[in-house]
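Lay summary. Proteins are chains of building blocks that fold into shapes, and those shapes determine what they do. In this project we predict the shape from the chain. Here is one chain we studied, written as its sequence of building blocks.
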Amino acid sequence: MAVEPATQSQTGKLTQLDHYRLLGRSGLRVSPLALGTMTFGTDWGWGADKDECRKIFERYAELGGNFIDTANRYTNGTAETFVGEFIKGRRDQFVIATKYTLNMRPGDPNAGGSHRKNLVQSLEASLKRLQVDYIDLYWVHAWDRYTLIEEVMRALDDVVRQGKVLSVGISDAPAWKVAQANTLASLRGWSPFVALQIQYSLIERTSERDLIPMAQEFGLAVMPWAILGSGVLTGKHSRPDNDSLRGDWGRLRDERNRIIVDEVVKVAQEIGYSPAQVAINWVLQRPGVTSPLIGARTVQQFEDNVAALDFTLSAEQVARLNKVSEIDLGFPHNFITPEVVKDLIAGNSIIIG
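And here is the predicted shape, written in a compact code that computers can read:
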């Protein structure tokens, strides 16, 4: 759904943070870009201080943004604390999402995981840091590989019934486990996952094999993170001739990724926008995507990211970006899609649907 008129940004261009979308099969209305808060706080040595975080938050709210994504582990709890202070007195106008699963007390095996004990203690701690009575969207931060899915879904349903959580979602989990969870929830009458967080960008498209199709089949909202490839798609670095770039930036030593970045830069130059804006706009146009996550350490970075809503890439530009970044879907996708196999299945009949 959209709300008119759009808000004028400081550049004089239209922003569309107030053109809201439905969050999966829930009734929640959320902005097309969610404000990620992993940069809120300097505890990890690379985030933004409190004053800058407040400026980013207020600018997001000023432009009509209402979807805030955080986690108990982000900057050791500082991110949730900042968000709680920033929303004080206007809590109900925001859709607040936070997460549990990651261990908050190293050395204590029950201070992490997706089980009921950690859910209960993590939720209570998050409610206190955020200074709220309920969470709009509560995420399983990552599949822990140990807890029975029956325990996870029943425990999540309990906190929904208690009114402490309105909807639940899952991040960083295999498609088969999410499908199992929602099928079980449907059969038992428990609260299903309404949203899915995935790593997704022009340089990381493997979610297209199973995760995104699964989400579309179950009506899950898809919220991509790392949409700039941890900064690689900003175009600030290209074609290194040595091993000076490490970590995520080291991806530029991969020839495929360098070709992708080069094409992103070309498109950006053609239309007069930044490479980061092009990369974000591409994600916004992907089937099934609801609200990609944007994060920033400065207001300037935030302004650049949110301006990705000011334009729409042409079909020709999208096709170029798709081509240089395409992936091999692998088995069974490559096996069942050729016409010869379709004919074997359909008996040479023409089937429309």
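What the prediction tells us: The chain has one domain: 21-323.
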